[in-house]
Design a protein that fits this description.
The protein has 108 residues and is mainly alpha-helical. It is 75% helix and 0% strand.
């Protein structure tokens, strides 16, 4: 997922006479909902496995798989949010950082 997907959604909305911002918003909300469902499913699976083992430790493979899925879900969410920031604020993000001579000095 990158900002190009969001730009495509906006362009398609424009082509059909719809609002591009609303189209991007709908897409992002839908994707965030799917990511939330993913995280919830991972949690439910972990609870079910824990219950099924009746207090015994979970096998290492299941713990590793759960951790991998959890990390994947969090990375996907971060990637989506970064794409949203780049889509909406590309001009700001393209600016170079201030030089050392123009940095602000903070006083206490």
């Amino acid at each position: 997922m990158d900002e190009d997907v969001l730009a495509e959604a906006a362009a398609e909305a424009r082509a059909f006479g719809a609002g591009p911002a609303a189209a991007v918003d709908e897409l992002v909300r839908g994707l965030l909902g799917q990511l939330a469902d993913w995280q919830q499913s991972i949690g439910e699976l972990g609870c079910a496995l824990t219950t099924a083992t009746e207090g015994r430790p979970l096998p290492g493979w299941s713990t590793d798989a759960g951790r991998t899925e959890d990390i994947g879900g969090r990375q996907a969410r971060t990637t989506l949010l970064e794409a949203v920031a780049r889509h909406h604020h590309a001009r700001l993000l393209a600016c170079s950082p201030p030089s050392s001579s123009s940095t602000m000095r903070w006083s206490s």
